[in-house]
Every structure is written in C-alpha cells, then in structure tokens.
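WARN retry 2 of 3 for item q-0093 after timeout on previous attempt; input resubmitted unchanged.
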Amino acid sequence: MPGKGEEYLISRKKQIERRQRILTIVSIVSFVGSTAFAAIPAIQQAIESPKSASASVSAESALQHQVRGYELVLQREPENQLALEKLSLLRLQLKDAKGAMELLEKLVKLHPEREDYKVVLEQIKKQQGKSDN
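OK item q-0093 returned
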C-alpha cells in the first residue's frame, strides 16, 4: 500500500502532466492562429491581384463606352460643346492625342473666345512634337 507521501507525488505528477498538455494545446492553437492571421492578408492580396488587372481592363472598357456615347451625341449634334469637350478629355485618357487634337481644333473654331481650349491644344501639340522627335 502506498503511503500518503507516495499518493501526493502521484497526484502531483498527474497535475503537472495535465498542465503540460494544456500548455501544449494552447501553444499549438496560438501558433496555428498566428499563422492563419499572417496568411489571410497574403491570400486576400493574391485573390485581389487578378481583380486589379481586370479592373484596369474594365476601366478602359468603361471609357470606351463613354466615348461611343459622346460620338452618338455628336452624330446628332456635331457642334455640341459639352460632347466635344468630354470626348476630347476621354481621348486624352485613352492616349489618343491626335483624336483629341481634332476635337479641340473644332472647339477652338466654334468658340474662339475660350482661351482654355487654345492652351490645351497647344500643350498637346507640344507633347506630340516631343514624342515625334
């Protein structure tokens, strides 16, 4: 028969083993949790990367859609100032400087009092001159 001292040692050993198991479980859960929190942003970024490429494509297609709309307006009203202005800006965004210059030249002819049209037209011509060299 074990004595009181031996019973104490056995119960104490069981307590220590339980604490070690609990500490091991808590450590594993903490490690997995911290790894997951580090991995989630990386996964989200990987998922969003193709979206950003498609976003630029969809942005360009949205600009093209707007261009078609303004071109339709200009078919009905060839001297519509707002449509000419917006279409020239859209063509600049789409890097169609020649198309924008044609529209701005028409705006300058229709509205010679507007200095801003003349200034923008000259800036585009200068940029075209630099890129041609």
